[in-house]
Amino acid sequence: MIEVWIERWREGDQTAAAQLYDHFATEIFRLTVTILGNRQDAEEVSLDVFVYALNHIHDFDPHRASFRTWLHLIAVSRSRDRLREHTFDQISLYRLFEKGIQFKSNSVLPEVKSVMEEKEDEFHNLLQQLSPKLREALILRFWAEHTYKDMAIILGCPVPTAQSRVRLGLERLRELVINGQNSMLDLREMRLE
């Protein structure tokens, strides 16, 4: 279906552009807000991603990457540009993950919920200690569920580098958990293993 929309948009069909936007808008917003940590900037960058992608649809090559991967490439690039424009002290990631790491539940006992919230806070603190490159790699691998090949395209690096960044990010998280006092986190529980 996506290929059909792309082809129709290339032929000038405005509804196809709207369908592409509707299909990917939420995902692109989540990705940009996860990287930027700021809803307003993420909204602007997300819109910029679609303006660029739709205006440059003839540059999209389905033999190099999927349309989703191409959009993520643009989103990461535009997010990096925005980060260079602004300095953020903290990027709150754990609250933005919609897949993979979900500690909260409305059906748990208050005592269990309290422990879960403590784990969220601890995970947040750990993520803040990772370099932006490692943070990006983990987001793309575990949140966006990209293959290493797609990650390499998005990050502009060879596949082994993408693999290495994920491995190093996980190792760094493990070190932080092991070195932390009374750590309550278990990386298997967070589905990062």
Secondary-structure blueprint:
Elements (H helix, E strand, L loop, with lengths): L1 H9 L3 H23 L2 H17 L11 H19 L24 H19 L3 H12 L4 H8 L3 H21 L14
Helix pairs in contact: 1-2, 2-3, 2-4, 3-4, 4-7, 6-8, 7-8
Summarize the structure.
With 193 residues, this protein is an all-alpha fold.
Radius of gyration of CA atoms, rounded to a whole number? 18 Å
The helix count comes to: 8
CATH architecture of the largest domain: Orthogonal Bundle
- CATH superfamily placement of the largest domain: Winged helix-like DNA-binding domain superfamily/Winged helix DNA-binding domain
Instruction: Report the order of strands and helices.
Output: HHHHHHHH
CATH class of the largest domain: Mainly Alpha
**Main sheet properties:** none
Number of domains: 2
Mean pLDDT: 79
Q: Segments where pLDDT lies below 50 for 5+ residues?
A: 87-107
Shape: globular
What structural category do the secondary elements indicate? mainly alpha
CA distance, first residue to last residue: 33 Å
What is the CATH topology classification name of the largest domain? Arc Repressor Mutant, subunit A
